[in-house]
From TrEMBL:
It comes from the Bacteria. PANTHER family: INNER MEMBRANE TRANSPORT PROTEIN YDHP (PTHR43124:SF8), PURINE EFFLUX PUMP PBUE (PTHR43124). Gene3D superfamilies: MFS general substrate transporter like domains (1.20.1250.20). InterPro entries: MFS, MFS_dom, MFS_Efflux_Transporters, MFS_trans_sf. Keywords: Cell membrane, Membrane, Transmembrane, Transmembrane helix, Transport. The keyword Transmembrane applies. PROSITE patterns: MFS. The chain crosses the membrane at residues 6-26, 33-57, 63-84, 91-113, 119-140, 165-186, 198-218, 230-249, 255-277, 289-315, 321-342. SUPFAM superfamilies: MFS general substrate transporter. It comes from Companilactobacillus huachuanensis. This is MFS transporter. It is a multi-pass membrane protein. Pfam families: MFS_1 (PF07690). The lineage of its organism: Bacteria, Bacillati, Bacillota, Bacilli, Lactobacillales.
Length: 359
């Protein structure tokens, strides 16, 4: 059970690369930057495809991971900039839905290609997808997008010394990461505990990706008006889905339904988390909006690394059944911090606020 390494290695590259590259590319033309990112992604995967040695393969993976981090940073800002203010979370949701579904469905698809045609063809497939992304960006992204204001490395300190911004970064790491103690070992749980075959799991993961797409879309809509209140409800929903996973972890069909429920809530929080840090940065550190966005991307990956490691420790102590409780503890901490942030921002919480339909 070494699945945690799948998430830790690329997430660490994104964690450190996103803010550094955000600083370096801060004043680049946004469309040219996106195209450059896609070119780097293609080069990284092409290196991996043709790698004669492990060192070159690793170099290709690092280049691709760095491209990943800065792409999410810039793409989420562009998505928020090209729509009406009351649609910003929905636009971010569309972008992250594509990313998340591609990640989830890409695992079984990449595994199938690798097993059928060899591991190099898995990377060749990524090169093909990169070319599609490159052409799409060249055609669809507006040419003249507004440039962010100048910033420098001190901008990181200006962000983290703002209590509200620091809080939302911690909330992002804990709340987003809460899915991963279970998700890291989802294939094992489906196979060993719920009794699904490996061929069935490939299909299940595709439906899981559909559930994620539905959740992200709903999460974007709910977060448009008031991201913090929506996030509170989403984290509660995710906590309930983790409890249901624990209750049904050894059941065949009920366990499958619980997994699909987890898919709906697993990444629903992403649009709201990304939108809210942009809103806070626009309010408290207007010169550092792209950098704040990049730090939040890093926080997502801090959450992945921390939670998958915690899940790995639990599994190594024969506690796979109890990995949902790790996520629940992280969610409880996130909900408390959201309440604190609401108080700091002058919001109030009542039963109406926690009704997702009214968010």
């Amino acid at each position: 059970m070494k699945n945690s390494g799948v998430f830790q290695q690329p997430s660490l590259g994104v964690m450190f690369g996103a803010p550094v590259l955000a600083l370096v590319t801060n004043r680049w033309n946004r469309k040219k930057l996106l195209i450059s990112i896609m070119v780097s992604f293609i080069i990284g995967n092409l290196l991996s495809t043709l790698a004669p040695t492990f060192a070159i393969l690793l170099a290709g993976r690092v280049i691709a991971a760095l491209s990943h981090g800065i792409f999410m940073t810039i793409a989420s800002l562009i998505a928020a900039d090209v729509v009406a203010p009351n649609k910003r979370a929905s636009a971010i949701a569309v972008m992250f839905t594509g990313l998340t579904v591609a990640t989830i469905t890409g695992v079984p698809i990449g595994t199938f290609i690798g097993q059928t045609l060899g591991w190099r063809m898995s990377f060749a497939f990524l090169v093909t997808l990169g070319l599609v992304g490159l052409i799409s960006n060249a055609i669809l992204v507006p040419n003249e997008l507004p440039l962010p204001k100048p910033t420098n490395v001190k901008g990181i300190w200006r962000i983290i010394k703002q209590p509200q911004l620091l809080l939302i970064l911690v909330i992002t790491a804990l709340g987003y990461g809460a899915t991963f103690p279970v998700y890291t070992y989802l294939t094992t749980i489906l196979n060993k505990n719920m009794g699904w075959s490996e061929s069935a799991i490939v299909i299940i993961l595709i439906f899981y990706g559909v559930a994620v797409a539905i959740g992200n879309t709903l999460g974007g809509r709910w977060a448009n008006k008031n991201p913090l209140r929506a996030l509170m409800g989403m984290f509660i929903g995710l906590g309930v889905s983790l409890l249901v996973i624990r209750a049904t972890i050894n059941l065949h069909f009920l366990g499958l339904l619980a997994v699909l429920l987890l898919g709906v809530f697993a990444f629903m929080n992403v649009p709201g988390l990304q939108l809210y840090i942009v809103q806070l940065a626009e309010k408290y550190t207007p010169n550092e909006v792209p950098l704040a966005s990049a730090l939040n991307i890093s926080a997502f990956n801090v959450g992945i690394s921390f939670a998958s490691t915690a899940g790995g420790i639990a599994v190594s102590h024969h506690q796979l059944l109890n990995t949902p409780f790790i996520g629940i503890v992280m969610l409880i901490a996130s909900i408390i911090l959201i309440w604190v942030l609401m108080r700091m921002e002058g919001s109030t919480v009542d039963s109406k606020d926690l009704d997702l339909e009214n968010c």
